Structures
1.
Amino acid sequence: MSTPHVVVVMGVSGTGKTTIGALLAARLGVPYAEGDDFHPPANIAKMSAGIPLDDEDRQPWLDAIGAWAHERAGHGGVVSSSALKRAYRDRLRAAAPGVVFVHLTGDRSLIEERLAHRQGHFMPTTLLDSQFAALQPLKADERGVAVDVSGSPEEITARALNALGELERSAAPQ
């Protein structure tokens, strides 16, 4: 990618947003921000108790991520956020119009297996169904790419970089 975009790495819990986001940021030479760090304590307590967040719970979290992305506009950055619904992505775009989404996708059984082996995270496996139920994949009018999460983190990151490069080339004036 030739210009310093802010990339939002999105997807359900367990797709590797943190791992891929950090690797992607390193490859692009820009800062990485962990989306979970933007959650207010009440959200973390709710999820830790196995209670899914509702749209109202997510508003301050999305606004904080949007503010970070806005501050990074023109400088570049990568931030993770589930950004499951179109309305959430619209809210992020309203704060930072130039954001580009990398939607990490994959087979539910693979994601569930990865979640089951994850250590020290507040998000229980039991909330995976609610995440898939809420997920609204990127639409054609949303600037972003879908990237399969099978394979190693390095392979996934390479696919993401290639897809972002293709997206940029297709948007470039001919």
2.
Amino acid sequence: MMENSKTIRSPFFYVGDKYKLMPQLKQLMPKKIEQYIEPFVGGGSSFLNSKGTSYMLNDIDSYVVELHRQIGSYTGKSEELFDALFEIIDFYGLSCSYRGICVPEDMKKKYVKTYYSKYNKDAYIRMRKDFNANKNDFLRLYLLLIYGFNHMIRFNGKGDFNLPVGNVDFNNNVYQALNNYLDFVGEHEIEFFNMDYISFLEKIRFDKNSYVFLDPPYLISMSEYNKLWNDKKEDELCEYLDSLNDRGIKFGITNLITHKGKVNQRFLEWSKKYCAYDVKSNYISFNDNTIKADSQEVFVTNYA
């Protein structure tokens, strides 16, 4: 079985995921977890770095959930997955530094900081167009995520994937992350759901060793993933966590307390009822990719 002492990186890379925070957060999770429950699973860095017996994982984004299911379906068949991914990469002529298919040196010298995006742009646009013609092709969607700007999943009002190319490619980190993900999924009992978080939590039969880990959208952030979150939803979540606490169910929740001059006062006041820990934040702005020194991220639990 995979040793879980090191931090496992999710193969669904995206700005703001909890990968860099997991060494801190793992230390604050309960020592004994049987049923690990995550209502906002996102890329999955959190569950990949927890020690549960069984996992119930949910996200309201159907594309996110289906990516987990599709990639996870290759458990025990990693060579088949990589063959399929590399076939797509070669079909479009994308760079793949993991396999030594690199950007020419003259282009690297000409575009020192952006050579991947310059090299892959046309191929990426063709791949994006083909995916939008058949949105059930989740291996293409995965590669759009890998080669796309900030590794995000973003669709326009017409329902088309519209993320531009990023300055990245399929490298050794992607290869290792996929292998680690398949190993973890193969070693654990995992079930994915695509529901709103309350409907998901309402269907669960909790026991004394259940643990709910929450990484919800951040109210005071303008991240792409947080645009549908508002004051009412923040209050609703806090009230629901109070009800879990009343039932003796352990939870831990991350949130952003201060960011770019804003303060999440409602969450700050609510958190005073529980145990709140400062975490060394890796919160990054979608717009300029710099870590915000004035951002304070916290982890709140109802257990010591």
